[in-house]
Structure formats: C-alpha cells, structure tokens
Design brief:
Largest sheet: none
Structural class: mainly alpha
Shape: globular
Radius of gyration: 24 Å
Number of strands: 0
Low-confidence stretches: 29-35, 42-52, 449-458
Mean pLDDT: 81
Strand content: under 5%
Distance between the termini: 64 Å
Order of helices and strands: HHHHHHHHHHHHHHHHHHHHHH
Oligomer: single chain
Number of helices: 22
Length: 468
C-alpha cells in the first residue's frame, strides 16, 4: 500500500506534464530543421492554421505552471514528518494523498474558471497535500523495515514513483487520444487516488504493535530486528544536533542532485518529445513511460544487490550508499548529454534516456534510504528536511528549462543537459566525501541516559569504597 501511495501521488503529479502539451496552443512548426528542430508526427497535426487551438501559454508560463506544485510540496514536508513521528504516518500520508486526489478532480474546473492563474493556485494546493508522502512513509518504514531489508523495502516502496510515472505518462497519452479531451486524465487519476485512500484507511496501521492481524511470529521477528535500532523516542527533537550533522548535509546535497536531474526528466521529457522530436501525444505518452519502467525494475535490482553486498560484508553500509549514489549520478548525466547529441535519431535518443533513468534507479538503495541509516527515530523529520530542501529544485528546474528553451531546439536543450550533468557531479562529490551509513549519536537520548546511569553507578561505587 505504501508502494501504491507513491504511485498514486506521482500519477496525479505528472499527468499535467502530458496534458499541458495538448492544453497549450500549438503553432505550425518551422521547416528550418537545420536550426535545431526535427521533422515528425506533429507536422501533419498542426500544419493547418485552422486546427490551432488551446491556451496561449508561452514556454516561460508553462515552466511556472509545472513548477507551481513544488511551492506547496516543500512547505508540508517538515510538519508532515513531525506529525508522522508523533502520531504515526497512517493519516499524515492518507489525508495528504486524499486532498491531492480531490484537487486533481477539480483541475478542469480551475483551468476553465481561472486559466493559468487558477491552475497555478490549484497545483500549489496539490503540492501541500502531497508534501507529507515521503516523510510519513519514511516514519512508517522505520517501524516496519529491518536494517538488512531496508534496501529492498525502500526501493520497492519509493519505486512506486516510477510506476506512477509510467501510468501517468502512458495512460495520459492513451486516454487523451481516445477521448480527445485533456480533462479526462484528471478525472481518472483523481478517482483512483480516492479509492486508494479508502483501502489504506481500512488495511494499514502505523506499526506492528497496533496491527490487529499480524502473526505473532512476524511481530516477534520485527521486535527483535528493530529493537536495537528503534529505541524509545526522546521527548524532543534534537534540532541543533541534526542541523550540525555533516552526514545529513551531505545527504541533502545528494538529494538536490537527484531531484534536479529527476525533475528535469519527469517534468520536461514529454515537452522534449513533442517540442524537439515532434512526437504525437500517444507516442509521447508511450515512449516517455518507458524510461520509468526501466528505472522501476532497476531500482528493485539495485536494492537487492545492495542488500546482498551489505549482508555479505563486501562493503560497509557507508561505502555501499556512496557507491550506488555515484552510479546514479554520473551514469544518468552522461546518458543525457549523449542523447542531446544524438540529434533527431529518435531510437538512439529514447534508448539513452531510458538508460539514464535506469541507472538513476541506484539512487534508492544509495542515498534515498540513507535517512533511515542516520536516524530511525527521527526518520520522518530527516526525510522532511532532506526531501523538502531537494524539492526546491522542482521549482527551479522546470522554470529554468522554460527560460532556456523558448524555441525547443536541440541546441537549447543541450545546455539544459550540461547543467544537469554539472549538478549531478558536484552534489555527488560532496556525498562521497562526507556521507555516512552509521546511526548518528543524536538518534536517541537513551545513549545519554545509559551513560548517566554508568556514571551514577561508578560514583556510587566510589562513595561506597570511601565509606568502607
């Protein structure tokens, strides 16, 4: 259900990326292919000026619309994580996805009433609801996932993002083509989100202790597996220690790199396929979904490999996290650059973008589960800080792409991908230098309590000896 939560969240997030290509007014393409555009499916569609329709939103306006979601998204990360730690992640996550589903259903109404402004406001509200997703799930994983299984379980749950991207892009293209209306995708995915919430409320619980149907054998196993790492939570969050933690800020840097590259691909790949490669909407939806399918499979495979390496002690947890994060940073960046230099060779471009997203799957057993390593007790808060700061790139990336690609030419997109590669490399170097896979001392006050007990016992022993 956690996997489906992420999948639903992403279908509602990314369906606009496909729909907006049909919402905006499409002008007849220039035949000056040597200037950096490609011939393709759309030439036949928009060559007749009488067929031009839609909203007159330029690339910069589209960038603002696509980034609006993240203004709300970053705001509710920290409150969502703190609520999940204090009261459990069930309803922090559940109500967040439910509110996003309701706003998704209202999208056609908001656009017809308020145009670009109405859509921007609604997308901010959607982001507010969805911002609780990852912090709440991380808090729940801390109570359900043993250390030896975190790579696989984290990859499986967070890999729901790729299934959401697959469903959101493929079915958006298919449904729009079949219905002839962009509004239909919002009705579809909003309804599915509400159905998920009903099942979530009935089936899922915050932790093994509160689950009424868990077997005694599994409950005992989880208590033993988590007991050493999931101590009783301190009465207050050690904010100073957290914000002074070098491994935490290394993780933040890795998250910034991951999110910048990921949001560039997720938000703008459909625009690249329609604007540069001139694919029609169905072909765009199908081929834009392929990289996410590969990323989902690779994330599970990388998760299994990482757990195997750690379990066999071929690498420490720290080195494993650094290795897989490096694979997920350098590989995708190089593939993006190669794709931009493949010109109008659509097969090569699709293969390279697919390889890029496939390698990005190594982020999940790399830096994505690293918050659980650092602190199981404050997993929700840590994820909120890391994911919230990283999500700021969701505001920057689409807007920057809109500014840099006003004509959607290959040469303009090349600069976008070079910037992405630079961000990948710089943030990865910081992570490799200062990241850690060890539990941090500020994870629990129980260590201090034990230390005080030892000191008290020592003092008592000294006093007794003095009296004797």
């Amino acid at each position: 259900m956690g996997f489906l939560a992420v999948a639903n969240a992403y279908t509602m997030r990314v369906c606009l990326n496909i729909a907006i290509t049909q919402m905006v007014r499409r002008h007849a393409p220039s035949q000056a292919y040597e200037d950096g555009s490609c011939p393709g499916d759309l030439d036949e569609v928009v060559a007749d000026p009488t067929e031009i329709s839609g909203y007159n939103w330029d690339e910069e306006t589209q960038g603002i619309i696509l980034s609006a979601f993240y203004y709300g998204y970053i705001v509710t990360h920290l409150p969502g994580g703190m609520l999940a730690e204090r009261f459990g992640g069930k309803y922090s996550l559940g109500f967040g996805v439910l509110s996003t589903a309701v706003f998704t259903l209202l999208t056609p109404w908001a656009v017809s009433l308020g145009g670009a402004t109405g859509l921007i406001i609604l997308r901010v509200l959607e982001g507010l609801g969805e911002g609780t997703t990852f912090p709440a799930l991380n808090a729940m994983l801390a109570r359900w996932a043993p250390v030896s299984e975190r790579g696989r379980m984290g990859s499986l749950v967070f890999g729901g993002a790729q299934i959401g991207n697959i469903a959101g892009t493929y079915f958006s293209g298919l449904v729009i083509k079949e219905t002839g209306e962009w509004q239909s995708v919002f009705y579809l995915f909003g309804s599915i989100g509400i159905l998920w919430f009903i099942l979530w409320a009935i089936l899922c619980y915050n932790d093994p202790e509160s689950h009424p149907y868990i077997s005694d054998k599994e409950k005992k196993y989880l208590e033993e597996a988590l007991g050493r790492h999931h101590n009783s939570q301190p009465s207050s969050i050690p904010w100073k220690a957290i914000f002074m933690s070098v491994p935490l800020w290394a993780l933040v840097c890795a998250q910034i790199g991951h999110d910048y590259g990921y949001f560039t691909m997720v938000t703008d790949l459909p625009k690249y396929m329609t604007g540069v490669l001139k694919f029609d909407i169905h072909r765009t939806g199908t081929l834009a979904a392929l990289p996410y399918a590969v990323m989902w499979i690779s994330s599970i495979l990388f998760g299994w490999i990482c757990d195997k390496i750690v379990k066999k002690q071929w690498m420490t947890v720290t080195n494993a996290r650094k290795t897989f994060t490096t694979i997920a940073s350098v590989g995708p960046g190089i593939c993006m650059i190669l794709a931009s230099y493949s010109g109008c060779n659509t097969e090569a471009v699709v293969i390279l973008f697919t390889a890029s997203m496939g390698l990005m799957g190594a982020f999940y057993p790399g830096m994505k589960v690293n918050a659980l390593d650092l602190s199981s007790n404050f997993a929700g808060t840590i994820m909120a800080i890391v994911n919230g700061i990283g999500a700021i790139t969701g505001i920057i990336a689409p807007y920057l792409v809109g500014l840099l690609t006003p004509d959607s030419t290959l040469t303009q997109w090349r600069l976008v991908f070079w910037i992405t590669l630079a961000v990948f490399i710089v943030t990865n170097l910081v992570f490799v230098a200062w990241a850690s896979g060890d539990e941090q001392w500020w994870n629990s006050s129980s260590q201090d309590a034990k230390k005080q007990e030892v000191e008290a016992a020592t003092n008592q022993s000294i006093n007794n000896e003095v009296k004797l």
